[in-house]
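User: Hi! I have a protein structure encoded as tokens and I'd like to know what sequence might fold into it. I'm fairly new to this, so please keep things simple.
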């Protein structure tokens, strides 16, 4: 055996080699776990590998960098870039190995978010597969960027050295690929906040045995019933988040948990009953630190086993359906820092064992049904910073010991039944930021309490709805105050200091419903620049403010009801451009509304209440079209109201009978509500009323006779109610200016009064869907506007300037808007709706459909030459269709369906060149449909239900020899016999025959000389004709024989 001795230099190198390798490995690990750390000295010696640099540049080209995040990244032109831009290891978000120079980490996560959690400095585009070149990449964070509607890139599964992968909130979609199995070294995986991702099971996690953090919050996992089994297969898992994943009950056989490493479990906002959670939850090791089971529909009582989770520091069971008492075993959780049991149905007292939770910093038991006093043991909670016991049924005094918890910053005890005074110890809570004691039965002198308090951090103070008394406290001692509500108490006096206006942080001030008495000037409000809500209503407070004062604030809500604000309308309100809620009822205002009123309070205002004042004059034009406050209360004033529009609400009950106080009203629109009862008789006082719309309510009774005094009415809509009785004759005797009359869908009966023919200016007459019977009046030709005898230049809609919106449904729709009236009309026939836009003066319509009218169609209708739509369907009309309907050359829609009409279709219909909708179905019409006209353009449904009709477009062919009616010469009617073969024609024909025949034969019968002369004449004519015939016939025969 020969042993050679190594040189001493090589021996020293071999001895140092393990140390060098160990140092390199430690540097690499540090770079993975803390990719942001990198020595500057190495950056000057090692440049990134060129192939990886080019891969990063190619990756950059696929992104949209609106926020210049990648400005430090270089370009393909090395010679033009400075050194730090050529070395990719110095680029933002790129980390390289200090030993090999390979890129090992890429961190491009969004770092800035708005108040809603939306990234504001992110990248957009797609993730290029060029990153596949980065074979040594072990850290990749692209979270918060915008890769919307892209699946998880496949190349990622080839980066087998990945240990950290965060793609949360990137907008990815699709199924989570099974190729995740390739990343067996993965320790951190976050795919949360990608609402488009889903997984059918957890099989893709089976090889991720090194995984420590798995966050899938917001991923759809409704079909993944093996979610408990996945825990068992991940022995290293410590953090597990499946919030809002639509989880269902775990599959059988996976209830027992073998994971002993879990420390954080988040299952909030799923639907997991207690039977699917508790069996495996309590088998977890005592290492569990955070547990969130919020909003998963847990029911029943809280198990005592929660008291065995000794390491628990965070427990959230809020927003469930838990019942029964709070287990006293919670007192064993000595490490508990945050406990939330709010929003359940827990009963009984608060366990005194809570006093053992010395580490507790946040406790929320609100929104339950807890009873009894607040435990005095709470004074042992020395670490408590937030305590919320609100909305329970707690009684008794507030423990004095709560004021000894110096760390307390937020205390909410509102909506209980607590009694006694506010503990004086509260005044020494120097860290207290928010105090809410609203709606209890607290008593005591508030002014004295606050005068002895030394709050330094107090920003929110809520004491509403108690029985506190005393003088108004000096709140200027609390400069950090942001919101103050001491309303609905019994505070008196008015010692508001002049430096009250120095509370520049104050945003909400509510001192309403007290017994305050004093004067407010602009000095008190001079520097309240942040004020948004001011409520001093229901106090005896007077305002002494200069009319030229400009407030430093922009209010959103102002309530000064029952204060002395008048007599003039406060001029400073015109500076409040953001005011959406104004209530100054009973404020002593005796003035007219200023011209700027409409400009300020009609821009998105939700509520304006000026009632119970002495405001007079008219309401200024808003200048904003249809925009206005949702609620405007001007009641009990002296205003000259001209327009009232309460349409499209859910108002119910009977209409008030007080319309005599609004005698200047021109437009009243109450449609689309649920008003019931009779129409008030006081409507008769509205003698200037031009528009009355009560459509689509539940009004009953007969047509009110008092409406005959509303002689200015132009539009009357009582449609879709429960009105009954006869159609009154007063419509034609008194309401002669009507342009639109709609009584559709009621229970009117009887025959149509002849007085309806006196409506000279009627344009739209809709009496459909009632029980009207009898014949259609022959006097319809007296409808002067429809017959073209008058225009609407002096009377009617064309000259109106009102602008309340009125909408008519079921067949057509008309919209009016100020100042020019436009029409938006829908005509519906046989389930086909056609839309028309035109001026109201050109829309003319008569609809008598769905009644019980009898007799024939009056020929006088043909004189209504301006008519655009005629609907007589669904009645009992008989007889032939009068050919004179062909004179309605402006007719666009004609419906005569479902009657008992007979005879042939008049060929005169060929003159109806504008006819686009026609329905003659289900009558007894016969013969051939006139050919060669536009009547063949309608489909078969127009004529169906007439078994004796034939010809196109029907499939039934006419028999041979049947009379053919055709049109020639460009549509002119060649055969017009149907227009002349009238009964008069036949009478004239008979009389002519009788007179002619007996006039001649009678003379020959009774006068012998004329009779002899007549017969001699006949003989001579016969003889002469015979001779001529023989001569002219004999000559050709003789020539033929000689030849």
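Assistant: Happy to help. Inverse folding works backwards from shape to sequence: for each of the 1043 positions I chose a residue that suits the local structure. Here it is:
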């Amino acid at each position: 055996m020969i042993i050679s001795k190594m040189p001493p230099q090589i021996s020293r190198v071999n001895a140092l080699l393990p140390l060098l390798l160990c140092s390199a490995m430690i540097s690499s690990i540090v770079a993975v776990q803390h990719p942001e750390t990198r020595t500057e000295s190495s950056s000057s010696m090692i440049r990134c590998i060129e192939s990886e640099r080019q891969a990063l540049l190619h990756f950059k080209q696929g992104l949209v960098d609106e926020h210049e995040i990648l400005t430090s990244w270089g370009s393909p032109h090395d010679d033009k870039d400075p050194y730090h831009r050529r070395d990719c290891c110095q680029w933002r978000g790129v980390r390289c190995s200090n030993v090999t120079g390979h890129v090992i980490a890429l961190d491009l996560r969004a770092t800035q978010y708005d108040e809603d959690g939306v990234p504001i400095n992110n990248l957009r585009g797609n993730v290029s597969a060029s990153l596949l070149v980065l074979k040594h990449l072990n850290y990749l964070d692209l979270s918060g960027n915008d890769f919307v509607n892209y699946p998880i890139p496949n190349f990622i599964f080839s980066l087998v050295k990945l240990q950290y992968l965060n793609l949360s909130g990137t907008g990815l979609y699709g199924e989570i690929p099974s190729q995740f199995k390739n990343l067996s070294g993965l320790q951190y995986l976050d795919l949360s906040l990608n609402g488009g991702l889903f997984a059918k099971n957890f099989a893709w996690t089976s090889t991720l045995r090194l995984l420590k953090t798995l966050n899938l919050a917001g991923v759809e996992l409704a079909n993944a019933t093996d979610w408990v089994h996945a825990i068992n297969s991940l022995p290293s898992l410590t953090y597990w988040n499946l919030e809002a994943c639509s989880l269902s009950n775990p599959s059988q056989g996976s209830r027992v948990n073998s994971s002993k490493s879990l420390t954080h479990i988040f299952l909030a906002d799923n639907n997991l009953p207690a039977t699917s959670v508790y069996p495996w939850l309590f088998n977890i090791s005592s290492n569990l630190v955070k547990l969130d089971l919020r909003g998963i529909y847990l029911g029943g009582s809280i198990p005592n086993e929660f008291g065995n989770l000794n390491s628990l520091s965070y427990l959230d069971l809020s927003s469930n359906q838990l019942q029964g008492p709070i287990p006293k075993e919670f007192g064993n959780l000595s490490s508990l820092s945050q406990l939330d049991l709010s929003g359940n149905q827990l009963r009984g007292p608060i366990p005194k064992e809570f006093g053992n939770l010395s580490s507790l910093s946040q406790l929320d038991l609100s929104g339950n049904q807890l009873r009894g006093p607040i435990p005095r043991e709470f004074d042992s909670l020395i670490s408590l910073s937030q305590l919320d016991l609100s909305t329970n049924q707690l009684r008794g005094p507030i423990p004095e010991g709560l004021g000894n918890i110096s760390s307390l910053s937020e205390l909410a005890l509102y909506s209980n039944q607590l009694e006694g005074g506010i503990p004086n110890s509260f005044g020494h809570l120097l860290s207290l930021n928010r105090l809410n004691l609203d709606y209890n039965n607290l008593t005591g002198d508030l002014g004295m309490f606050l005068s002895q308090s030394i709050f330094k951090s107090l920003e929110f103070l809520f004491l509403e709805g108690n029985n506190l008394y005393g003088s108004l406290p000096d709140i200027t001692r609390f400069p950090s105050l942001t919101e103050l509500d001491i309303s609905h108490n019994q505070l008196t006096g008015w010692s508001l200091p002049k430096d009250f206006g120095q509370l520049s942080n104050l945003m909400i001030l509510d001192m309403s419903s007290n017994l305050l008495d004093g004067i407010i000037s602009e000095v008190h409000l001079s520097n309240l620049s942040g004020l948004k809500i001011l409520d001093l209503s229901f106090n005896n407070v007077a305002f002494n403010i200069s009319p030229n004062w400009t407030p430093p604030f922009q209010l959103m809500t102002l309530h000064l009801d029952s204060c002395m604000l008048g007599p003039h309308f406060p001029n400073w309100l015109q500076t409040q451009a953001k005011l959406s809620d104004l209530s100054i009822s009973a404020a002593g205002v005796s003035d007219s509304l200023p011209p700027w009123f409409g400009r300020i309070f009609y821009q998105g205002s939700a509520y304006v209440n000026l009632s119970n004042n002495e405001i007079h004059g008219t309401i200024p034009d808003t200048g904003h079209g249809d925009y206005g406050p949702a609620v405007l209360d001007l009641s009990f004033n002296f205003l000259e109201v001209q327009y009232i529009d309460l349409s499209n609400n859910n108002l119910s009950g009977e209409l008030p009978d007080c319309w005599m106080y609004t005698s200047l009203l021109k437009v009243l629109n109450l449609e689309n509500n649920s008003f019931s009862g009779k129409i008030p008789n006081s409507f008769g006082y509205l003698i200037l009323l031009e528009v009355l719309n009560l459509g689509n309510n539940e009004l009953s009774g007969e047509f009110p006779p008092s409406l005959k005094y509303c002689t200015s009415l132009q539009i009357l809509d009582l449609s879709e109610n429960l009105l009954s009785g006869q159609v009154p004759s007063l419509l034609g005797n008194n309401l002669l200016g009507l342009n639109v009359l709609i009584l559709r869908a009621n229970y009117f009966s009887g025959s149509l009064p002849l007085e309806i023919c006196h409506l000279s200016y009627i344009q739209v007459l809709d009496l459909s869907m009632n029980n009207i019977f009898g014949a259609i009046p022959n006097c319809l030709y007296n409808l002067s506007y429809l017959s073209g005898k008058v225009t609407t230049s002096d009377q009617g809609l064309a000259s109106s300037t009102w602008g309340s919106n009125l909408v008519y449904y079921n067949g057509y729709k008309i919209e009016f808007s100020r100042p020019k009236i436009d029409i938006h009309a829908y005509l519906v026939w046989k389930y086909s709706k056609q839309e028309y836009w035109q001026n109201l003066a050109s829309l003319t319509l008569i609809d008598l459909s769905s009644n019980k009218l009898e007799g024939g169609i009056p020929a006088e209708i043909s004189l209504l030459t301006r008519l655009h739509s005629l609907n007589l369907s669904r009645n009992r009309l008989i007889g032939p269709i009068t050919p004179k309907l062909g004179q309605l050359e402006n007719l666009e829609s004609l419906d005569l369906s479902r009657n008992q009409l007979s005879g042939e279709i008049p060929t005169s219909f060929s003159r109806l060149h504008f006819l686009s909708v026609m329905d003659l179905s289900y009558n007894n019409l016969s013969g051939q449909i006139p050919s060669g006209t536009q009547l063949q353009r309608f489909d078969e449904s127009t004529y169906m239900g007439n078994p004796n009709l034939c010809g196109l477009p029907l499939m039934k062919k006419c028999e041979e020899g049947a009379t053919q009616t055709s049109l020639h010469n460009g549509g002119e009617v060649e055969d017009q016999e149907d227009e002349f073969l009238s009964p008069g024609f036949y009478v004239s024909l008979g009389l002519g025959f009788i007179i002619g025949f007996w006039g001649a034969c009678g003379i020959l019968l009774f006068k012998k000389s004329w009779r002899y002369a007549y017969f001699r004449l006949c003989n001579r004519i016969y003889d002469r004709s015979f001779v001529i015939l023989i001569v002219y016939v004999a000559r050709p025969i003789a020539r033929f024989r000689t030849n």
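A useful reference point when you look it over: Confidence is low (pLDDT under 50) at residues 1-44, 798-831, 833-838, 963-981. Feel free to ask if any position seems puzzling.
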